[in-house]
Write a structure and sequence with these properties.
By secondary structure, the protein is of the alpha+beta class. 44% of the residues lie in helices and 18% in strands.
Length: 138
């Protein structure tokens, strides 16, 4: 995922802290809390306050990029919101980038309806040629 493009598409000002926080959440295989994100950022050498982590998480949640899970006692875990999950498709010829909604939820429904199988893992890799480049090749 192109994080900079993703933030731009969601009208979020791009900062190193926001990029780094989103990278950590995207790379996490499970829900993660603000303190764990903060520790990982510090370990990576980013000079950041814990309050910045919380503000960024609140912003990403308000934009529906993250899901926030209440664990009680003012503790929360965060994951990427699969409904807001996007994919970047880049044209092989002109390298124009386009963002689309993730097709996996619809594919999962079709697979389950046809086979009864519930997906536990999926990977999407998208390549193609844009409409303009196809027309220019004719």
């Amino acid at each position: 995922m192109d994080i900079i493009l993703y933030l731009k598409e969601n009208n979020i000002r791009i900062t190193n802290a926001r990029k780094s926080i989103l990278e950590i959440i995207l790379s996490s295989s499970e829900a993660i809390n603000a303190n764990s994100i903060y520790v990982l950022l510090k370990k990576d050498g980013l000079n950041i306050d814990l309050s910045t982590v919380y503000r960024t998480l609140d912003l990403l949640e308000s934009k529906k990029i993250l899901n926030k899970f209440d664990l009680g006692n003012n503790m929360y875990n965060y994951t990427i919101n699969n409904n807001a999950h996007k994919h970047v498709i880049e044209c092989d010829l002109c390298h124009k980038k386009m963002i689309i909604d993730c097709p996996i939820p619809q594919i999962e429904e079709q697979i389950k309806a046809k086979t009864g199988i519930t997906l536990t893992e999926s990977h999407v890799y998208l390549k193609g040629v844009c409409k303009e480049c196809k027309e220019n090749r004719k």
